[in-house]
């Protein structure tokens, strides 16, 4: 699962900055759905994203990578 799909499934209804980011991602037809972290951060910066948005993205990416790693290894911890 890519980051975009993960954000839609995990945070679309979250009442926190990461939820705001997920909703912005959904509403942006040009968002790089298959982008890596650097591409996504560059895109957000090009759109004038605030520090809070960038920080939410970086924290969400860390969580995404942890969960993706667990899914690949079959580890529940």
UniProtKB/TrEMBL annotation:
Annotated YozE SAM-like domain residues: 3-65
One protein family per Pfam: YozE_SAM_like
Gene3D superfamilies, sorted: YozE SAM-like
Record InterPro entries: YozE_SAM-like (IPR023089), YozE_SAM-like_sf (IPR036806)
Protein name (record): YozE SAM-like domain-containing protein
Organism the protein comes from: Mogibacterium kristiansenii
Source organism phylogeny: Bacteria, Bacillati, Bacillota, Clostridia, Peptostreptococcales
């Amino acid at each position: 699962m890519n980051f975009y799909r993960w954000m839609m499934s995990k945070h679309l209804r979250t009442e926190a900055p990461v939820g705001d980011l997920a909703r912005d991602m959904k509403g942006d037809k040009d968002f790089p759905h298959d982008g890596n972290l650097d591409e996504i951060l560059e895109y957000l910066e090009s759109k004038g994203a605030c520090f809070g948005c960038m920080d939410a993205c970086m924290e969400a990416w860390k969580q995404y990578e942890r969960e993706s790693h667990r899914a690949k290894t079959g580890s529940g911890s």
